[in-house]
């Protein structure tokens, strides 16, 4: 899975977790929680869904590295490659 | 034999649409069982029966709008079982009494269900689109059909359910501000010890079992309320009534559709991880419109957390007949002086709005002190 495919997977999960969101475009470089008004519970659901799909757990200490869509995709791409 | 009535799910509810029966005539029901789904301005709510018995008769067909208090079904009690519904209903009424008095008398028209004539398909479509049939009926002759809904959706698309919710909040809050003499107290709480403790716990579990700070803070509120129970209760008919159970109403943002504060029922009996699970479940069901009647009527105090949006101090308005509201702000890195050192700590402002008829500032101060102490010694939270 390359970075673009991961990005698509993340967007898909966001839509499942918050189906009531109206955004057509999820901004790539803005803080996800702020831009989409998703709360800490939604964010945890997102990371859990991605863990189940991609097999990578994001520890809380790394939350700063997955704050935007681009950075989150890069984070997963890096770790999937390693395994 | 007793009547099962359309319940009042809060002082702001006047009527609701009976959507679906979950039981049929002849079914045995037990106290607390969900027997129907109703749709209110707060979404679809499952309503429970308050006694054991057998469904004798169903009086209202699905998709009918009924005022609060309209008989929906007749329940035949088991032989040994003295009907308790009248007692429960009476109790519910006294709880609402102070609010009802302040509102215009609408008892005259409560027995007539005001049903707008519309085809089932139109009704279904209107519901999906969030259109109010009553609004459309004013500009339609006779029965409303699907085509009318579709054209309405194009020309006057709006979300009246959000409007209704706004009106409901408006009437409850006006009453609260007019009648409740609020007092406010606030305390700065050093959250660093509790947050580092929680981080350690979360390091050792899978993502699924992680506990969020919001759940930990609610757990701390509940523990502090056990020590200072006066804030957990109601002001009714001139009397302060302290509740034994703690059912905190949790303010949950519904994104487009406003805010709802369903109760985290039985919070006293939950440990930390259970609090997290129950809170997560409550938030998801609130957003999916799948709350239960009890969750909208049993709140004994309200907790509102606006920290996600960067608010530091929350000065809330108490939701009557409750007597307190706890406001929690954003956790912010702040210079913190302790002994002779200044360090940077994660600090949260906790605010208490209290009803001065029921409690004094001293009670509120005791609560905030207890809340702070628990968070400084987080092991108590497990």
UniProtKB/TrEMBL annotation, chain A:
SUPFAM superfamilies linked to this entry: ACP-like
Residues in Carrier domain copies: 4-80
Superkingdom, taxonomy of origin: Bacteria
InterPro entries for the chain: ACP-like_sf, PP-bd_ACP
Protein name (database record): Acyl carrier protein
Organism: Desulfobacter latus
Lineage of origin: Bacteria, Pseudomonadati, Thermodesulfobacteriota, Desulfobacteria, Desulfobacterales
Automatic annotation (TrEMBL), chain B:
Location of region: Disordered: 84-123
A GO cellular-component term linked to this record: pyruvate dehydrogenase complex
Molecular function (Gene Ontology), one example: acyltransferase activity
Pfam family, one: E3_binding
EC number annotated for this UniProt entry: 2.3.1.-
Cofactor annotation: (R)-lipoate
Residues covered by the Lipoyl-binding domain: 1-76
GO biological process: pyruvate decarboxylation to acetyl-CoA
Bias (Low complexity) ranges: 85-96
Keywords: Acyltransferase, Lipoyl, Transferase
Keyword Transit peptide on entry: no
Domain of life: Bacteria
Family affiliation: Belongs to the 2-oxoacid dehydrogenase family.
Identification of the protein by name: Dihydrolipoamide acetyltransferase component of pyruvate dehydrogenase complex
Native source organism of the sequence: Desulfobacter latus
């Amino acid at each position: 899975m390359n970075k673009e495919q991961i990005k698509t997977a993340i967007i898909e999960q966001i839509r499942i977790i918050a189906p009531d969101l109206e955004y057509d475009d999820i901004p790539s470089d803005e803080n996800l929680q702020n831009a989409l008004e998703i709360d800490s519970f939604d964010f945890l659901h997102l990371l859990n869904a991605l863990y189940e799909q991609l097999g990578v757990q994001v520890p809380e200490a790394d939350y700063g590295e997955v704050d935007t869509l681009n950075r989150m995709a890069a984070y997963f791409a890096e770790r999937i490659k390693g395994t | 034999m007793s009547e099962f009535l359309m319940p009042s799910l809060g002082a702001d509810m006047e009527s609701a649409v009976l959507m679906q029966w979950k039981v049929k005539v002849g079914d045995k029901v037990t106290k607390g069982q969900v027997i129907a789904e109703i749709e209110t301005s707060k979404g679809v709510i499952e309503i429970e029966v308050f006694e054991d018995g057998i469904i004798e008769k169903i009086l209202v067909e699905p998709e009918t709008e009924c005022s609060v208090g309209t008989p929906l079904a007749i329940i035949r009690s088991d032989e040994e079982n003295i009907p308790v519904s009248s007692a429960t209903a009476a109790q519910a009424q006294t709880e609402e009494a102070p609010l009802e008095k302040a509102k215009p008398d609408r008892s005259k028209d409560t027995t007539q269900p005001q049903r707008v004539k519309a085809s089932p398909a139109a009704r279904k479509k209107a519901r999906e689109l969030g259109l109010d049939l009553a609004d459309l009926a004013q500009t339609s002759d006779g029965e409303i059909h699907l085509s009318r809904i579709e054209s309405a959706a194009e020309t006057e698309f709006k979300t009246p359910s959000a409007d209704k919710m706004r009106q409901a909040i408006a009437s409850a809050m006006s009453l609260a501000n007019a009648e409740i003499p609020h007092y406010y107290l606030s305390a700065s709480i050093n959250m660093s010890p509790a947050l580092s403790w929680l981080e350690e716990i979360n390091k050792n579990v899978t993502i699924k079992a992680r506990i969020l700070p919001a759940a930990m803070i609610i757990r701390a509120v509940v523990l502090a309320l056990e020590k200072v129970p006066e804030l957990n209760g109601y002001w009714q008919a001139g009397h302060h009534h302290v509740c034994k159970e703690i059912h905190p109403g949790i303010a949950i943002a519904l994104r487009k559709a406003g805010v709802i504060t369903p109760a985290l029922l039985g919070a006293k009996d939950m440990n930390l991880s259970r609090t997290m699970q129950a809170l997560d479940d409550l938030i998801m069901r609130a957003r999916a419109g799948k709350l239960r009647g009890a969750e909208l009527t049993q709140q004994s105090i309200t907790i509102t957390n606006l920290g996600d949006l960067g608010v530091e101090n929350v000065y809330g308005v108490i939701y009557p007949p409750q007597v307190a509201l706890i406001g929690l702000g954003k956790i912010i890195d702040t210079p913190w002086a302790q002994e002779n050192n200044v360090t940077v700590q994660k600090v949260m402002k906790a605010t208490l709005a209290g009803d001065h008829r029921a409690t004094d500032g001293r009670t509120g101060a005791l609560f905030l002190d207890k809340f702070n102490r628990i968070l400084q010694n987080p092991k108590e939270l497990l």
